[in-house]
Every structure is written in C-alpha cells, then in structure tokens.
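Shipment paperwork, digital attachment
Item: protein structure file
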Amino acid sequence: MASKQYDPSKIEESLYKEWEASGLFSQSEGETPYCIMIPPPNVTGTLHMGHGFQNAIMDCLIRYKKMSGYKTHWQVGTDHAGIATEMVVERQLLEAGKTKKELGREKFEQEVWNWKNKSGNTITNQLRRLGASLDWESERFTYDEDYQDAVILAFNKLHEDGLIYRGSRLVNWDPALQTSLSDLEVVNKEKNVKLTSIKYKIDGTDQFITVATTRPETLLGDMAIAVHPDDKRYKEYIGKDVELPLCNRKIPIIADDYVDMDFGSGAVKITPGHDFNDYEIGKRHGLSMDSKNNIIQGDESSFEPISVLDKHAKICGCAPKNFHELNRFEARKKILANLESEDLIAGIEEYETSLPFGDRSDEILEPFLTDQWYVDTKKMALSAIDLVKNGDIKFVPSNWEKTYFQWLENIQDWCISRQLWWGHRIPVWYDESSNYYVGSSEEDIRERFKIKGKLSQDEDVLDTWFSSSLWTFATLGWPSKTPKLSSFHPTTTLVTGFDIIFFWVARMIMMTNYFLDEIPFKEVFITGLIKDENGQKMSKSKGNIIDPLDLIYGIELDDLLKKRTSNLMQEGLAEKIERKTRKQFPNGIESYGSDAVRMTFFSLATHTRDISFELGRLKGYRNFCNKIWNAARFINNYPKEQDKFEAKNDTDKWIEKEFNDVSEQITKNVEEYRLDFAMNEVYEFFWGKFCDKYIEDCKASGETANLHPMLKKILILMHPFAPFITEEVNELIFDDGSLME
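Attachment content:
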C-alpha cells in the first residue's frame, strides 16, 4: 500500500474478474433464501443513471444478505426488446443498402441474432463495471429457447381458459414503425397547434352547431355530434341530424354526460374510429352506418366504428374519394381549404395540447382500429389487488400502493400483439377458411385438430411485456419444477422505478398468481427518478445526461461534447448544449471510481419521487474512499498482534459499543430500504469515530493491538456499500479470502 492516493482504476476491473471467475456470485448456501430478480434491461440498452442507481441498490442488498448467512440468488438477464432491437437492425441494414422486406422474415431474424451475438452484451458488461454481483452462471434471455416454450405455454393456457381473445379495438398505432404500442411506449409532448372551429349544418334548418378540433382530417370519420343532456342550448336538437361537412353523410346529435358543457361551444365531434374517448361514447350509443352511408343509433351490440385512416395514416375507406391516398397532414390542409371555401370555418386559434409520440420513432401516433390479441384482465386484477391489500405483497414506500390500486381498479384489457418480426410469434395458425387454432406448433395443431390443408401462422409477435411478466418464475425453470424454482420462488425483493408499476409490476403479480397461485415477490422497493443537480429530468435535448460509466472512468471534454451533441437534429441545439457542457465540465468529467459512484447513489436513495444527483456529493465520497485507503495504510504500519478484537481499555470498549450500535442501525436501515440512512451511518462511524477518535487515541496511548481486528470488522460492514476498496484493503492487509465468502 505504497501509494498515498487511492486509484480505483488500477484495481476495480481486475478485481471484478477475479470475483466472477471464482464463482463468488453464484447461488450461496444458507438456511433462509433471499432472491432478487433484475428488471431485465433491453438487449439494445446501455447503462444510464436509473440503471446504475437501481442496480447499485440491488447489489448492496444481495451482498449484505449473502454476508449475513442467507441463501442468496440475484437473477440476471436481458429482454429481447422487440421494437428497439428491430429498429437497430433495420437501421444497420439500410446503411448496407438492404431492407427488412427484401430479406424476408427468416433471414431478418437471423440478422437480429447475429447482431445480438456481437453487440447485445453491452449493458451486461457495463453492470460488471459497476460491481454488480449478479449470478452470471444463471443468465437468461427472454428469447432463449426454453423461455420461448414457457411463453407459448402461458399463451395457450390463457386462451384455453377464455382469457385471451382476438378483437377489433383502438390501439396506439405508430405509422412509422407500423405496429401497435403499449401506453409505456407513448411519450406525451406539449405542443402548440391550431384549434379549428367548424360549423355543422343542422339538417332541415339554416342553423349550425360549431365544434372545435385540432385534427380536422378526422372529420371525415365523424359519426355524431355530442352535447350534454342538461345543456339548454342544444336540448331541442338532440335526436336531430347534422350534415357532415365535405361528406354526403348525415350524423346524429346525441346526448352524453361525458361532454363538458362549459368547454368551448359545449358540443364535440365524435369519431369512434380515431379517438379512445369517442370510441367509448360511440359504443354506448350503438353508432353504425346504414346502407345510405348515414349514421344511426342502436344498442352496444350494433356498434360499428368506421375508420378513414389506413396503417400508413393515409385517408381511405368511406371518406370521399378525392381525399384518398393523402397522408393525414396533406388531408388536413386540403380539408381546411375546402371548409374555408364553403364558409364552414368559424375560427382558428393557437392552442396548447398534449400529443402522443412513439418513444422510438418520435412519430405522432394515431388511435387506430385494428384486429389484435387481448388478455381479459378484469378478474386477474381483482386477485392482484387483494394480494397487496392483504399484505402478501408490500410496497415501499407504501404510498405507491394507491397508484397500483388506481390502475388495477380501472384496468382495460391488455393488447398483447405487435406487428413486428422480432419476438415471440403468436402461437396461432389459420386454415384456408380463416378459422384459427391455438397450439404449441403447426404439427401439434394438425395432430390435435386433424387438419390436412394449408395452415399459416399469425404474422404478429407478442408484446415484450407479456414475456417479461413471466420473469420471476420462467427464469427459474418454470414450467419444470426445478430446485431453483422451489428454493427461490416467491422471490424476496423487487427494486424498480415507479414508471413501470402498471406495465411490469402489476402484470407480474397477475400472471404469477394465475399460473403458480402465489406471489412473485414479497416486497417492491420503488425508487425515485434521478434528475440533474438542478432538479431537471435528464434528457438528450437538455444536454444534461450523465453516463455513470463516465463518472467511473472519467471522460475528456471533447469526447463528452461529442456524446452530448451527436445526432441532434434541432437547429442551434448542439451549440447551446456545447456552451452548457463547457461551463459545467471545463476539463471533462473526472474519474471517481465505482465505489464513490455507488456510495453517492446510496446516499440519494431516499423515499422521494425525484432525486437530484449532486456532483459535489460524488467528490465527497471519492475523498471518503481516500480516507479509507489512508487509514488502512496507517494501520498496516503496525504489526498484526491478534486476529480477534478483545477490549482492553475504555477506548476499546467505547469503539466496540459504537461498532455494535452502528451495525444494528445499519441492519435496520437496510431492512427498511433506507440505504441513505445506512450510508450516512457508515460514513459518520468510519470517519468521525474510527479515524478521528479511535485511531488517534490508539496512537496516543500506544495500545494498537485492536486496530487490525477492528478494521477487519469495519471492512466486512462496509463491503456491500464499497466492495472494491474494502476487498482490496482486505487482500493487501489480511489476505484471508474474499469478504463475501
């Protein structure tokens, strides 16, 4: 320990390789099982601050439990990430002058596998650099062959039990990617748009009803005008028809409580084929089109929404032919021009509204009417609610239970089909008469249903959330009754963010309860969102993203600027971000090492929704690492007189009591997921009590025999928080095996 300055770059990577090679991270022995499931990152992903934060917490928990004698298992794996992966590979193909369509499905899938085998391990290697003690020998991928078998079995079972069905519904549709999206893949952005007020002539009169819209092109698919039943302005018109502008069609004026009579004119256009709220209104009133193309009312069973946009967001269907083949924005311009020429525009004003964008394509999404596969989640949701209400599953902090309940109590059926090629292909086959059959394979279906004619498999794949909802048990070997499944399921703790409570946590609870009749995990620790030191969300457009690996390794200013400004399309944005970055990091980002980054994360692990990442705090923990190093160097100057701590004087008794007290408090804090409190206890004890008082008292008295054994106890205590430096000090001074053993 000749160096006076601790240099993490010289030890961390080599030390981790030693740990992994020695099998230290594999399942440990012990009486009581403790299991954490990693939220599987996308195979296309790279480590961001959220990943770093959550995985540091998981690593601290698993190391602490392993060293406390538990039988531990931290399951590692990645998600095949259908949309993200397909986009990456398609982009590479285009650069090579090829297209997905030209290759065909089979060759395209092989291209994806080739990419995965070469480039799909980036994030798992980055997790290693953070020090994550994952059980790499048990690594899983949601597209592994046996995992695929589990997914097919789950689909077949749900369908057999009447919980999976095919239906025509509105979905979030991405015209660029040509697929439906889950709500999680939708990014709502505030935008200034034009709000156009359009006059609809009341049939048989010279009067008009005015409605406002930001999407004039959807007028071509209007099926009604709705007003509030108590609105005195329109009571006499309820039940009458209006002439739909630009279309040879009449639509009814209907009364519905959904309408806010105080907003705008108090009348709204109803376009069930292109708006989620309108769809529900249209269904309530049984809207459909008669043989003369006019809209009539009936009961829910007669509801037939019409669609005037195709999957490319071009005008089609029952819309007037002169608009066909125009994309939605071209159609908007033409419709506005035609309305203006017929004096049917009552006004146009600027209006700020929230528009849905695809998180991958950055394309404005359309509610689109299409046939998809759904899971009926109503009954499953009731059981999932009870499991939390009864205390079988605990949320930490507990206030997130309200969010969980609110979503499940208002749950909609789950659209599980995606129009992609990469993913778990839906195990459904169609005969020549379009009858469909569900099974494990074409051979299985031919044998069971005695079919000799042509069969074609459904082209769609399953939503990746469907396969990942099986994560806690499929990774442990289900449907086989493996020793790991018996030992570690239900798992103990799930550490995740509040943004996927609905899409992953709740669905895991529903699916695990359905297939195993048990819970997937006992506790869910919901972490806050890491923001920058000014409390702003980190984003590429703001130029405030910090890569945790840059904090560990350090990065030169030129390289940092290149990372932050590359691929920025907005004019002038790169220059603005460059100025901001040069001011914040005039010399680039310094190297802090993994332990300092981890301890900063722990100190920020409060139970709040938003967490500001402070670079000043990070510098403080780098100094703390140096304090540990120099304290160990000082103690190493004395001979090791004894292995076990034996109090010989009042100072020894004092530090022993302080150590026992802090150990007890840290255990309590870890159990309660207050790693911020635990980290503070570690810091205050080591620096303020062990270094500033105990070591100094020992120096003054010459009673130094207990310095080594107390340091050993402290290294063990601190190891889950700062594994690299504690392990290195232990090797250099004690050389008696890993602290994790």
